[in-house]
From TrEMBL:
One of its GO terms (biological process) is proteolysis. Residues 1-19 form the signal peptide. One of its GO terms (molecular function) is serine-type endopeptidase activity. It comes from Cloeon dipterum. This is Peptidase S1 domain-containing protein. PROSITE patterns: TRYPSIN_DOM (PS50240). InterPro entries: Peptidase_S1, Peptidase_S1_PA, Peptidase_S1_PA_chymotrypsin, Trypsin_dom. Coiled coil: none annotated. It comes from the Eukaryota. SMART domains: Tryp_SPc (SM00020). Residues 35-258 form the Peptidase S1 domain. Keywords: Disulfide bond, Hydrolase, Protease, Serine protease, Signal.
Length: 259
């Protein structure tokens, strides 16, 4: 039976949740602004989106980075997330971090071969079991170009209220900005060679919503294909946010993971 139809997701989620032995402790509170734009994701809509968590106090798990499942053994995230010293884990298959779909240990973290500071591949154990709420995202062809003017979707774990723990998966539309225009807007602050620029749409304020969160590794997706990985808002205003351009790292991803 296919259960990947959004209409059937509730039944599927109940099945998955009942099979989870390990209960997640409430997350540690962390300062953050309330999300400004965006809406909650629906079940099965972004089944590749995972949470990388750390256990700083030896008791409670805290969301640290966002990531995307790309195969049964690997997720793709921001390289920064690989330089964290404590013992991390991955939570997949849920829209609510207090009720994990599945929990995975991290066995290996590999930073990209060009700069070591853009992307990281994270190997999990046990492997993901694919179902309606846990599935890999498609990867772009090598050097595939991202067309300025297209509208993409970025997803991120967010707290529902200021000072609440990161708990809920939100989605936000984001418009791809031409690189030359972006370079001027960002005043040459970053060399855009490895980046895509995008600006949030439907934001209810002049403040860029992706700016409110340290959503390192959050996926920027179009038609189920992963094109960008959230890198930094650079400036916390209405100027574009930068995402790592995944198609430029395609050979390295293939060499490490076989996908
Ligand atoms: C862990 O979470 C529990 C429940 O919210 C809380 O009572 C406890 O203080 C937390 N532990 C630490 C070390 O923060
Ligand atoms: C997440 O799950 C917990 C535990 O079941 C529940 O108390 C909380 O209301 C849920 N949060 C949302 C946003 O649905
Ligand atoms: C994760 O690692 C811990 C500590 O080594 C181990 O106790 C636990 O069984 C592992 N969990 C999984 C799902 O492999």
């Amino acid at each position: 039976m296919s259960c990947c139809n959004v209409g059937l997701i509730l039944a599927c989620c109940a099945v998955l949740a009942s099979g989870v032995p390990d209960k997640l402790q409430p997350l540690k509170t962390r300062a953050s602004s309330k999300i400004i734009g965006g809406t909650p994701a629906a079940g099965g809509e972004f089944p590749w989106h995972v949470s990388l968590q750390n256990n700083y106090d030896g008791q409670n798990w805290t969301h640290v980075c966002d990531g995307s499942i790309i195969s049964s053994e690997f997720i793709l995230t921001h390289a920064w997330c690989a330089y964290n010293p404590s013992r991390p884990r991955i939570v997949a298959g849920t829209l609510n971090l207090t009720t994990p779909g599945s929990i995975h240990n991290i066995t290996e973290m590999i930073t990209d071969d060009r700069t070591r500071r853009h992307l990281a591949l994270v190997r999990v154990s046990p492997p993901f079991q694919f179902g309606c709420n846990t599935r890999p995202v498609q990867l772009p062809a090598r050097f595939a170009e991202t067309t300025a003017g297209s509208v993409f979707t970025v997803t991120a774990w967010v707290p529902l209220e200021i000072f609440e723990p990161y708990s809920t998966l939100f989605k936000l539309q984001s418009l791809i900005v031409p690189k030359d225009e972006c370079s001027i807007l960002l005043e040459g602050f970053v060399d855009l060679i490895y980046f895509i620029c995008a600006t949030d749409v439907n934001s209810l304020s002049e403040v860029n919503s992706m700016c409110s969160h340290q959503s390192y590794g959050a996926p920027l997706v179009h038609d189920g294909e992963l094109r960008g990985v959230f890198y930094s808002p650079i400036y916390c205003d209405d100027r574009p946010t930068v995402y790592i351009e995944v198609s430029l790292f395609r050979d390295w991803i293939f060499r490490v993971t076989g996908v």
